[in-house]
Amino acid sequence: MATTTLTLKLPLLRLNQAKVQEFLRLQELNTDIANQLLTIPKGERTKLTSKDFNHIEIGSAWINQTIRNTNAATKVKQFKVLPLETNNQNWSLHKVGETYSLGFGVLRGIKQRVPLEIHQSKYQEILDGVLNKTVQKGSMKLWRSKKGKWYALLSVSMEVPDADKPQGWIGVDRGQNVLAVASTPSGMPKFWKFAQIRKIRKHYAAKRRRLHKAKKMRVIKRLEQKERRMIKHINHMISKEIVELAVDLKCGIRLEDLSNIRQTTQQKKKQKSDASFNRDYWSYFQLEQFIFFKAQMAGVAVEKVPAAYTTKSCLKCGAINQRDKHNYTCRRCGYRGHADYGASRNIGNWVGLSCPIELQKPLSVMVKGVQSGEVNGTPLSLVSGSNSCMGLVTQEQESPAFNETK
Ligand SMILES: [Zn+2]
C-alpha cells in the first residue's frame, strides 16, 4: 500500500459578517505575529511557545502552528499574508444529515462550527473516510481568496491500493499536431484535438494584445488567469478520460519521459516565449500530474518511457523515418499513418530497456567475449535474461516491441 497526501479546498458556507470580520482580524494578527517572530534570532525563536503570546487575543492552536511555520520558513523575510493554520488535533469534522461541518477553536474557549460546501462526490468519500478514521487528518488552513471567499484547506493522507498488474499498456503521446493521443493495446486510437482550443486561445491572444496597447495590465492578468483555468479544466478532463480508459481495459498507462531531454539555452528561451505567445503551448506537466494522481487513486499503473525516437520509429517495422507534419510514411515497409498516433503506439508497446544509458560504464554485452558458435549482433531483445542496456540501438533492430500486437 502506498500513501498519498492531498489538500481539499472546501468553501465555507453561510459565513455571516461577524465571522468574516473575526477571521480577517485574526489573519492580520497572525501575519503580524509571524512577522515579529521573523525579527527574532532563530535560536531564541525556536524556544518560544504559545504561552509567550498569552496576552494576545488569538487561539493557542493558531499560534503554535505559526511558530512552527516561521521556524520552517528559512528564506522568508516578511509575510504578506500568513493564513491561519492549525495542526490535526485542533480541528474536527462533523456530519449531520448530508451536511459536513468543520469545528475549530477561534479564541480561547470559543469554538465554531462552520458548514462546508462539497461539490464532488469524490470529496464526500474522503470526508467520510476522515469520519471513520480510514483517512488521516493533517493540518487545516483558513484561506481567503482574492475575491474574498473563505475556504478551509484540509490536508489529508490516505492509503491507496497498489496498482493492479496491467494486462496491457495504453500509450499516451503529447502530440505535435494534436493535444494528445492515446492508443489501446489493440491499436484503437483516441485523439484530443487542438482545433477548438486554438480558436479560443486565438481570441484570448487578440484580446490581450488590444489590452496591452491600452496598458490595462490588471485586466490582462485576469484574462490570463481565466485562460489558465480553462487549460486546467481541459487537463482534468483528458486525464480523467485516459484513466477511465485504462480502468475499463485493465491496462496501465505509459507516458513519454521528457525530463531527460537536454535543452540548449536557445531552446529554453524559445520555450519560454512559446509559453506566452504560442497558442499551441500546453501545460503537459500539469496533465502528467493529473494523470498520475487519478491513476493512483484508481489503482492504475503509470510508467514513463524514454521519449527518444517514439515519433520517428515505424510502428510496424521499427525503421526510423522522418515525419511530415501529421503524416508518417515508412520507407522500409510502406506503412502510412498519423505521426502522433504512431508515437503513442510506440510508447504503449515499449519493451523496457529500463536502465538509463550510461556510456561511461562498460555494457555487459559489449564486454562479453565472443565465444565460438555465438552470433555477433544478436538483437538485444532476443538475448533473454540479459539486463544490459543498449539504449539507442534498439530501434534499428527488429525488436518485437514494434511488431503489431493482436
Ligand atoms: Zn515500417
UniProtKB/TrEMBL annotation:
Domain Cas12f1-like TNB: 284-347
Superkingdom of this protein's organism: Bacteria
GO molecular function annotation: DNA binding
Keyword vocabulary terms for this entry: DNA-binding
Name used for this protein in its record: Transposase
